[in-house]
Amino acid sequence: MSDFLNEDVIDFDNDASASSFGWNFQSNAGIFLFLHYIKDAECVKIESKLQDVEIDLRGGKKILAQAKSSVDPSQDSQKREKFKDAIISIAKSTKKEPSAQMIYISNESDVFPSADKFFDCNVCSYNECIQQIKNEIDEAIDNTINSIQKKIDEINAKGKCTKKDEKRRCKCEEIKKLVLSLNKTNLFFSSIPRYYGSEQNRYSEIKNKISYFLSNILGFHTHQTIKILDRLFEHWHFICEHNSTVKDISKEISKADFIWPISVFLLQDVQYEIADCLSFPLEMSLEEDAEQIFNEYEMIYHERFEFSNKVLQNYYDFRKSLPPGTQNVEKEFVKVHGADYLDEFRQESFDEKMLEYVTKAFVFRIVKNSKNLKDICPKVGLDI
């Protein structure tokens, strides 16, 4: 239990260095859990000050998950020790968030032998467990308490204690108190099986979770799910892994920003056809250069929720102002208001023609996207 018992203070920052595999698992565990709670979720953080995964729910409720993983679960002899570490971390979190729902999530299905894959691809509460699983959880928690007490006894056995010893003893006693008072009704368990080996195999259950979400929650047809699954996973994987490396104050990924790319990827093969919306004749060379820009990963930034919602609200107001039966409303909006957003896309590498074309093409795609968004957002509890 060296990870936590050697901390100098009881109030701790969960941000810590870890193996790339561990970060990778935390990020994907964040995707898995955020989708699991998506209807009530508001935002997610990876590697926050409180826990490996922190999810805010409606009504001020919070989910805090401690993620533990092994590169090769079949060779891992420290499964119970990892759980002990996790319980200490979870118990510490209750000091600041006593009513939070706490989750232990792992890529190891056999941390508790009696569970027999009961937690695989699911989130189960302590109360849902059969008695034998509860007994094994209870035993692991009792062993954790005994290990902490052993540390305290070792310090007491020294007789005369240094200030450092006294500080360590106080910390251990407070940790023991927090573990003893842990509310098991708020304790949940989950495992992501087969999260090891090559990336192609490692992410299969995460992709299955995304596929289920797209098909069963959003109601997408199979061809739509297949069309965007890989690119959507790559995007979520990227933003969650990046999220684990930034300062806690700027970590928050809102549900809106998390969900928004779904509608963007549905339109990834839409033809722009906005030549008649430009102030200059469109040349093929410019169109070809712009196509490369549209395919750059970072350009999805310009279709983020805040900006796109602003464009759509302006578009809805514009549509109301037109006579009934007006045709090609999207293009009319781009012709009249497309240039209003030039500053959003301005870059040193863009000349005026490229800037206008890129801006109007993105604005056109955003307004074409309004129907997808009206279908998606209510199903995940978002208003547009």
Please tell me about this protein's structure.
Strand 3 (62-68), helix 3 and strand 4 form a beta-alpha-beta unit. It is elongated and about 85 Å long. A seven-stranded mixed beta sheet has the order 5-6-4-3-2-1-7. Helix 2 crosses helix 8 and helix 12 runs antiparallel to helix 14 (352-368). Residues 1-18 have low confidence and may be disordered. The protein contains 15 helices and seven strands. It is α/β, with parallel strands linked by helices. The chain folds into two domains: 2-203, no CATH class; 268-368, no CATH class.
For the structure shown, list the relevant keywords.
single chain, 384 residues, alpha/beta, 2 domains, 7-stranded mixed sheet, 52% helix, elongated, disordered N terminus
Share of residues in helices? 40-55%
Strand content: 5-15%
Total individual domains: 2
User: Looking across the biggest beta sheet, what order are the strands in?
Assistant: 5-6-4-3-2-1-7
User: What kind of sheet is the major sheet?
Assistant: 7 strands, mixed
Number of strands: 7
Given helix and strand content, the structural type is alpha/beta
Provide mean pLDDT, rounded: 88
Poorly predicted ranges: 1-18
Distance between the termini: 47 Å
Q: What's the helix-strand series?
A: HHEEEHEEHHEHHHEHHHHHHH
How many DSSP H or I helices? 15
Radius of gyration: 25 Å
Describe the global form.
elongated
